[in-house]
Fold this sequence. Notes:
The structure holds two protein chains of two kinds. Chain A has helices at 2-14, 16-36, 39-68, 70-77, 83-113, 121-148, 152-180, 187-195, 198-209, 217-227, 230-257. By secondary structure, chain A is mostly helical. Chain B is α/β, with parallel strands linked by helices.
Amino acid sequence: MLKILKYSFFDLVRSRWSYVYFLFYLLLSSVLLFLNNDLSNTIITLLNVVIVLVPLIGTIFGVMYYYDSQEFTELLLAQPIKRRSIFLGQFLGVATSLSLSVLLGLGIPFALYGLFESNVIFDFLILIVVAVFLSFIFSALAFNIALSNTNKIKGFGYAILLWLFLAVIYDGTFLIALIYFQEYPLDQFTLIATLFNPIDLSRILILLKLDISALLGYTGAIFKDFFGTLTGSLVSLGVLAVWVVLPLWRMLCIANKKDF
Amino acid sequence: MVEFKDIHKNFGKNEVLTGINLKIQKGKTTAILGPNGSGKTTLIKILLGMCHSSKGDILVGESNTRNNWSYRKNIDYLPQIANFPGNIKVKEIIAMIKDLRHQKTRDTELIDYFELEPYLNTKLSHLSGGYKQKVNLVLSLMFDSPFVILDEPTSGLDPLSLIKLKDLLKKEQDNGKTILITSHIMSFVEEISDHISFILDGKVYFDGSIDDLKSNTGETDFEYAIANLLKHNHA
Lengths: 260, 235
């Protein structure tokens, strides 16, 4: 598996798109740091970008990589290698190279700006952890979609729809539900509904760490009660981990049964 | 050596194989023949574990191929259509497969033999069909495994390369390798193989030597004998 991981990783690292992705983050965080002149504010601005962009790029990249390397995959399948190793290796190659682009793109300007002497290093760390988690989650989901659809156009379509659903539509319906049922106690519902969407979960996790939960009003207080504690943080990180493991498990199941 | 036991395969409603029973003898060259779409490639893919049979088992040596991968260490496989990732060089893909399999190789010998030396630094997407097939041959034959599967090995090759391939295969036969081929070039099949298995409508329709086939059909020419098989079945 490690050899497949190595080849996928270097194949991607050499590709133009990884550089574009890396340079985008580098430029974005440098400009934001320059304009904001403040680490904490920059982290909040970046949060809004990371939370939408990382899932989008993760899905598109994952689907694209799978379809692009189909021929190579077929070549590998005839070799004495376990199927699980092939697909796990490719997935990890995509997810780690994406994570590395984010890590370096955001990390370098922050480090130069003096992150290590500031007191927001922990907040920044959470931003990075969330970005890495989102990269892994959405490339795993993308591999699931690509493996279940031989038709590339359909695969891309479903991938975009999935992103749109989790990044936009989910929040929209969630808000409508909150307004519609505002006379009922909704704290439990809100908490649980947040756990079911990795994007929302990541957002809340960072917002609460940044101590701006006062902006969230009464619900914010409840969230703070739950997510603000150590148990809450652990639960949310655990849920994010489940969001990685479940799609990965399903991906391996499909890969094992598929005819090539 | 290899035994197919009642192999069934359907893709949705389309039943491709409906009970293949076949034995491939060790040290012999068996040709699997059949009209287009008769399931030759599917059968080979099932043997390699790339497709799963709906029913039936395959034994390679002593081991069942189901949920098993280690038996592929002793198989060299030449896929039918040489689809390679386009953005890497010939030499890189050879190095990659060598690294992945970690077995003894004879790649330099084969590169020389098929005169691929000047193309080692060319990207695979820039190669012509014939050269792609040569790379394909090097990739699949370089491990010198005792069991060789060739799916349409002649496609895209010019007459000179075809003769070279035949010579190479004859050498392999002398070394006692078991070879399984599919081809539509009947003269090639006749020259190379000891044994013919003809697949029709998802079943083995004829299984025997070339001489058996000729005497069964009453034809003296191999190509006509095969055509005769097809005609009589469809009449």
